[in-house]
Write a structure and sequence with these properties.
Layout: E1 20-23, E2 37-40, E3 56-58, E4 85-89, E5 99-103, E6 106-110, E7 123-129, E8 135-138, E9 143-148
Antiparallel strand pairs: 1-2, 2-3, 4-7, 5-6, 6-9, 7-8, 8-9
């Protein structure tokens, strides 16, 4: 099972603006397999443009690559919420205000007096439990205080 080299011709007008990467599958290669993706550091759309050997290379080595992020915590998580846990937020039908969780049986709602919740469905946030009565949910641009909702659902 030796690898084979292939040459693929692509019309320049179909290439993305550089830099870009080339890979065999639509899915990203597994973490730690940088040889499965080739980076091109130059824009090749202009007629006659060429890339030098230095402008075409594999992804960073495993030592240089960022570590794979921890899995996101999900609704229904049992036990203590780790500080800085990733959480993907989705709006919930039936809830009057933004909620996260339940975590360990507790649903958390946006605290009274907090600024308008400007988070999109599917947006990544981070959870920072401060106490049993307060959790900070951050988006990277804004921090919001959440408090226990008093119920495990919005029903």
């Amino acid at each position: 099972a030796n690898p084979h080299a292939y040459v693929v011709a692509v019309e320049r007008s179909l290439l993305p603006e550089g830099p870009f990467h080339v890979q065999l599958d639509a899915d990203d290669p597994p973490w730690g397999a940088p040889e499965e993706r080739t980076h091109v550091d130059v824009d090749l759309r202009a007629p006659g443009s060429e890339a030098t050997d230095a402008q075409i290379h594999h992804a960073p080595s495993i030592e240089e690559a960022e570590p794979e992020p921890e899995p996101a915590i999900e609704d229904g998580h049992e036990g203590e919420v780790p500080n800085g846990a990733r959480y993907v937020w989705f709006e919930r039908a039936g809830c009057e205000r933004p909620v996260v969780g339940p975590f360990d049986g507790v649903l958390w709602r946006l605290a009274d007096g907090e600024p308008a919740w400007e988070v999109l469905d599917g947006q990544e946030t981070w959870l920072h439990p401060a106490s049993e009565a307060v959790m900070v949910v951050t988006t990277g641009e804004m921090d919001y205080l959440f408090v226990p909702a008093g119920t495990a659902s919005c029903d």
